[in-house]
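Hi again,

Forgot to attach this to my earlier email, sorry! This is the prediction with iron/sulfur cluster bound. I've pasted everything inline since the attachment limit keeps bouncing my files.
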Amino acid sequence: MKEKVFKYLAKISDDRFYPPNILQKETGEEIVYKGWRKRVAEVLNKDIADNFNLYIHIPYCQTYCRFCRFSIKVTNSKKELGEYLELLKRETKRLSPIFKKIEFKTIYLGGGTPTIFSTRQLGDLFKTLEDNFNVGKTVQRIIEATPLTLSKDKLELLRKYNFDRLTIGIQTVDQKLVKKINRDGQTKKAVEEVVLEARKKGIRSINMDLLGGLPEQTVESFLDSLKFILKLKPEALHIYSYKEEDAIPFCRMGVRVTEKEKNSRKEMFFLADKLIRETGYRSYRNEPYLLSPWAANMQWQAVQAGGSLLGIGAGAESYIPNNFYYENPILKEYSARNNFKRAVAISKEETMANYALNNIRTGVERKRFSKVFRSDFDKIFGKEIAYLKKRGKISDDGEAVKFNAKNNHDFRVYSKIFFSDKNIKKIEEATKKREAISKRKIFNNKLIGSPAES
Ligand code: SF4
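Structure tokens for the complex follow:
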């Protein structure tokens, strides 16, 4: 019976945090400030092991890639970007007094395309962050970019402000597909030049993303892009599978992958994995292909390890352990309703469950768990561990408990053992409500939200 419930939950929720964000409720800025003040005091007064991480969201792009499922806005207006920059600065300055005594461990600028800002605008943002937060001892600074938004000046600036992990979304270098996905101008030459320049400037780690399974993409085309990327030796590599979702531009345009193309995906990923590993890449924690452990996304690791996440910008997500996590309003509402957030409350028990969910795949270390929570892992999750052990889903060497996932689906089903009965009930109710609204919308023949706000 319980597994039936898990299977149902596996279908509806795949969130970064637990409890899932389907349980979000509106909250005001003062509540958020209070939450942060409480966490900061807790950490400073009780010497609790925590690390604070800073995330800045820039939801703008030069073009809208036709496979993209993110909520972004296309712009090429310096003025519009300048206005958004002022909002980021305003939010930064308002939060700054709370974090006076806190040192941030990582900074991550994500989007969208953060490098869509001009060199001057980026410099202005970096200076504002440095003036308002203690970021002098960060262990990693990450920025996401596209090849066509990176100039020599910008790379120089990134180096000056110690950005040491550059994430470049390439997806493909097949020129026919580049055009089809709406990334005109992204030639092999342009990609190579950016990578060589970034290295010349001393940027330590480059992460590249590729997509497999795009409409009209053949195995040969995919492998050709991969081989080209491997020659550039990025320190980290991510291969994503193209997901057909109704809201993305391709689907709205009526472009669908054929059965033949779908079937060729398995071959693509199998051959890619073989080739990448032969080239010297290894898995480390949750990252599949790294040349070295330090090339990993340390912000995500830090948050998974129980750290706090302060998100600034439209749609940015924040995480306050033992209290709640929340999202800023989306771009349309960000300037007008900067003080409104969507939040999910999290108790200490749920914070621990979130930790278990985020770490059990790579192993929950008992010592680390007790350092973070001052609680015994087996006392808290004894029943859940026994359940998974009985079904052969975990291994336990005494120091750490690790999930033996046969596949993603298996993990998504059985990891739900950490969900509390109370939350399962709430999730069911919220899902039913959402489905009913969705059905009503379809019935009324109304348009259901677009990912692009433009
Ligand atoms: S894939 Fe990246 S660059 Fe393209 S629209 Fe989405 S966020 Fe922007």
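Residues 61, 64-65, 68, 70, 72, 111-113, 146, 169 surround iron/sulfur cluster (CB under 6 Å). Residues 421-443 form the longest helix (23 residues).

That should be everything now.

G.
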